[in-house]
Amino acid sequence: MDPITLLSSVLALVYIGLVIFLANQDEVDRRARVEEKRGRQRQTVARWMLYGLVATTLVLALFILQAAVLTASAGAMPELEIELPPIEVGAAALNFGLALALGVVSLRLITSEGTRRWVARLTGPGSLYDPQSGVHVAAMVLSLSFISILFSQLVSSGGLSGLAEDVSAAGIPLSLLLVQAVVVTLAALLGVGLSIRRDVGGSLARLGLRVPTAGDVIGGVIVGIGLYGVAIALFTVWSAIAPAEQIAEQSAASEAIAGAFNTLPAAFALAALAAVSEEILFRGALQPVFGIGLTSALFALFHNQYALTPATLIILAVAVGLGILRQRQSTTAAIIAHFVYNFVQLALAILAAQMLGGG
């Protein structure tokens, strides 16, 4: 990672961490009915930081659209000596439309209580969602903004084929996955108010984390294997409907990511890091607030290597299964199921490749 990218990443993490921290402080003030000047200032700063985040996603999408247009122009006019990535204008335009739509929704969430109450109807009965909570508003805006950024990155890399080529050429360092897992886990802990609104025990309980019980292990293994079977069944239906070339194109990025971890220890590490961090964030932190449906949709969209292809429906089905397990047992059980789901398919692919190679 070059110094500029590293510095940008650190600044982004600090910015997001500060947004979550201020939202939690605002929640403390609100529950204590504190109306002091400092509390109102924190609320204002947090709101404007969310505005800044939304603006950043729009600027990024607009920059990518401009780069796509300039790339097309440079192809028609060789005198423009500009080196730009091969970005399709149509994809860039769609990406800007997505960023604009998510930006409008985010702004409505920040400014309109009616919109926040509408979200409450989507979360379902029994959710912890509070239209007045600054933490919950920040969580929604951060999620939508991150989805916009992920799709902008996908388009700027040349789409699924470009992402597949990048992964195949450079691989994915295990250290990068570790850093991402730590950041996601810390965001979840900070989001539920660790050391701000809750102590360690309260934070773990809120996240649904506990020492694995026999039921967690058995349920996690059964559900994990069952979800793998569901994924195979859905993929079989997809294969029967779609042309093989289309499936290969739409699966290229996910297969390249899986291919980057072609040993059992590497597959184990990938499965474990993804399962722990993603379940703590989605099923632990977000699901009790936004319900299984919204959380599962966010989970599917976060996996941008599927880019709204039919494979996204497979991930959505897996997310719903993990959500039901979390609701009935614990996040710990969902972590085990997620790990089993990931590791089984990676391990089978590795063993199959070894057997075919040996033959």
User: Mean pLDDT, as a whole number?
Assistant: 89
Termini separation = 39 Å
Total count of helical runs of at least 4 residues:
13
Helix content: over 70%
* Shape verdict: globular
Which value, in Å, is the CA radius of gyration?
Answer: 21 Å
Largest sheet: none
- Quote the beta fraction: under 5%
Overall structural domain count:
2
Structure description:
This protein is mainly alpha-helical and 359 residues long. It folds into two domains: 1-156, no CATH class; 170-359, no CATH class. Helix content is 82%, strand content 0%. Helix 3 (89-111) runs antiparallel to helix 5 (134-156) and helix 12 crosses helix 13. The longest helix is centred in the first third of the chain and has 40 residues, at 37-76. The model has no long low-confidence stretch (mean pLDDT 89).
Give the structure's gist in a few sentences.
The chain is mainly α. Helix content is 82%, strand content 0%. The protein contains 13 helices and no strands.
Task: Outline the secondary-structure elements.
Elements: H1 3-31, H2 37-76, H3 89-111, H4 113-123, H5 134-156, H6 159-170, H7 174-191, H8 200-207, H9 214-241, H10 244-259, H11 264-302, H12 311-328, H13 331-358
